[in-house]
Known about the structure:
Blueprint: E1 6-14, H1 21-24, H2 44-47, E2 70-73, H3 85-93, E3 97-100, H4 105-113, E4 117-120, H5 123-132, E5 140-144, E6 149-151, E7 157-159, H6 164-172, H7 176-182, H8 184-197
Parallel strand pairs: 1-2, 2-3, 3-4
Antiparallel strand pairs: 1-5, 5-6, 6-7
Amino acid sequence: MDKFTTLTGVAAALPIVNVDTDMIIPKDYLKTIKRTGLGKGLFAEMRYDDKGNENPDFVLNKPAYRGAQILVAGDNFGCGSSREHAPWALLDFGIRCVISTSFADIFYNNCFKNGILPITVSPEDLDKLMDDASRGSNSTLTVDLENNEIRGPDGGTVKFEIDGFRRHCLLNGLDDIGLTMEKSSAIGSFEKKNAEARPWA
């Protein structure tokens, strides 16, 4: 998993509440178990019309936001069914950070397991960040996980809190496998002692 330390990138505003996982990645895209290639289906029902043509009014189809890496979204983001394809699709598109006032628990946990930083802020701070993200080519934010702060294009700063263990994992690029591999020497030592003590096993 890629490390997340400081991210400076275009932020796109999605001022919609209760964006569920079916909106993030519709069920038609759930036939694969691969983590790649799902970016094309991200927000598909909003990004494309019935004929598969791009909707020019949707934020991620606008020229200034096609390379967005940060999403500033409405309350209760990621609700609905517990599909891990949702963070996979966000990451495959290029989104590394989602900012909202609240997240559904399963989606929130899945983000950390896939290298995406979900940040919870107050409604007042979300309004400021939503305004920053609505400035087209000037909508650049810096998300600094080392200092737990978001810096806006005008120099304003929003502080955020995050669980220490999850922060450690993101800063060091550790998913569940990575965490296990950190203990590889201890695991190897145990296996060796176990084999000597129980050679019949």
